[in-house]
Amino acid sequence: MATLIQSYEQQYAVLTAEITSKIGRLKVGNEDIREQLSKEIQANFEEANDLLEQLELESRGAAGAGAGGRTAAFRAELLRVREEFRKVLSNSAAYNIDEDMSYEDWGPSSPRQQLLDNSERLERTGRSLTDGYRVLLETERVGAEVLRDLSGQRETVQRARGRLRETDEQLSRSARLMNSMVVRGLQARLALALVFVALGLLATAALYYSVT
């Protein structure tokens, strides 16, 4: 489950970075490009919302409150980006600048500053992706160690099972030997009883002949 949540988080980070990049292009694009970008951004918002819903479902079954807290933060970030998109749409006319205008002439609140902000967001997203990839590698390493441990335990169980079979065979042989010894003892007792009976009969016969 943790790996699936990390995958959703990485997909969300990539999608958010894509939306942010398109919003930056929306601010400086012409009318045709803004119309196309607006449609793409709206579709991306729907995809991001669906992704967050999947993430929330998975987070509910995850242990601890960390996953739920991250999901809430992602939801707040998505709302902030959506609000920024709405502001850009409402102020789109203010961003029809001359293509020959120098970038040095843009003020702090100009599209240049917005692009710088978007670059910072992209860098943060990249760091988040790097951290997520590091966590994924660590999870893969732990999984490999668990598989090795399970393999070793399986070999131990197989050896124990083999020794158990050998012990069972030895017990079966011992039981057969004991049964044979018991039968032989009974046979010896029966033979001895027959001898005593024969001797008694002989003694009785000798006594009878000696008297008569």
TrEMBL record:
Keyword set, alphabetical order: Coiled coil, Membrane, Protein transport, Transmembrane, Transmembrane helix, Transport
Q: Which top-level group of life is the source organism from?
A: Eukaryota
Family matches, as Pfam families:
V-SNARE, V-SNARE_C
Q: Which residues cross the membrane?
A: 190-211
**Domain Vesicle transport v-SNARE N-terminal spans what residues?**
1-62
Annotated signal peptide: none
Gene3D superfamilies xref list: 1.20.5.110, t-snare proteins (1.20.58.400)
| Location(s), subcellular | Membrane
How is the protein disposed in the membrane? Answer: Single-pass type IV membrane protein
- Protein family: Belongs to the VTI1 family.
Protein name, entry field? Vesicle transport v-SNARE N-terminal domain-containing protein
